Amino acid sequence: MDMLLKMETDNQNVQKTQVCNYLPERVHSKGRRKLMSWLNQQMKVNLIDGRILVGTFVCTDKDAHIILSTCYEYFNEKDLDTGESRLLGLVMIPGRHIISIHTDVQQTNEQPINSSNFEEI
């Protein structure tokens, strides 16, 4: 059980007083809820140099850096359709190099990755 405690001190004695027996649920903004819905989902990221990275969305930060796990690199859309890729593993993509991000609309692991499976965000 989560409990919020208030500590009061007088001289050398410390008293703990139970203020409430639960912590209220955090109310997240619409944007944060959207980001949370993308966690552990397949994501495609287009970079300024033309490369395409496809992997599992792990996290982001205030500077729009993105971390993808089990990430594959494709050099262009043609490679994405033919499946010609290079496994990178865990990658951090600086936000300044990102043109666009796309999420997988199918959300199934059995479906092969190609450009028609993604919708632009």
UniProtKB/TrEMBL annotation:
Decide whether keyword Nucleus is in the record: no
Q: Which residues form the Sm domain?
A: 33-103
An annotated GO cellular component of this protein is: NatC complex
Q: Report TM segments.
A: none
Q: Which SUPFAM superfamilies match?
A: Sm-like ribonucleoproteins
> Would I find Transferase among this entry's keywords?
yes
The protein's UniProt keywords, in alphabetical order, are: Transferase
Gene Ontology MF terms in the entry: transferase activity
The text of the family note is: Belongs to the snRNP Sm proteins family.
Protein name as catalogued: N-alpha-acetyltransferase 38, NatC auxiliary subunit
